[in-house]
Amino acid sequence: EVQLQASGGGLVQPGGSLRLSCAASGFTFSSYGMTWIRQAPGKGLEGVSTISDGGVNTYYIDSVKGRFTISRDNAKNTVYLQMHSLKPEDTALYYCYWDSGGYWGQGTQVTVSS
């Protein structure tokens, strides 16, 4: 059974930082790229960042470039999203997404507000 458990969200002031983690199981994690996606209130799903299977190649949407960093630890079957300089528009439910299998798990809420 594929499981993707995101954690690390919370309430943070604008300019603050959070580190999201996603623990994966049920598939050969090290063989696949992974993506963080988010859904803001009243909006659709948005792909935020992707990392290749070995972690060498990364992709970010323009709105988070320079502020977010995606990484992974294949020994721990975990993908991370380090977020700095958070803005109110980053407020969303964040999920990690296994593209090839079409799975995403329970998300973690990030709220940026003063």
Characterization of this structure:
This protein starts with a strand and ends with a strand. The mean pLDDT is 96. It has 114 residues and is mainly beta. It contains no helices and eleven strands.
Strand content: over 45%
Order of H and E elements: EEEEEEEEEEE
Helix content: under 10%
SS-based structural class?
mainly beta
Distance between the termini: 40 Å
Query: Major sheet, described briefly?
Result: 7 strands, mixed
Please give the radius of gyration in angstroms. Answer: 13 Å
* Residue runs with pLDDT of under 50 for 5 or more positions: none
- Helix count? 0
Form type: globular
Number of strands: 11
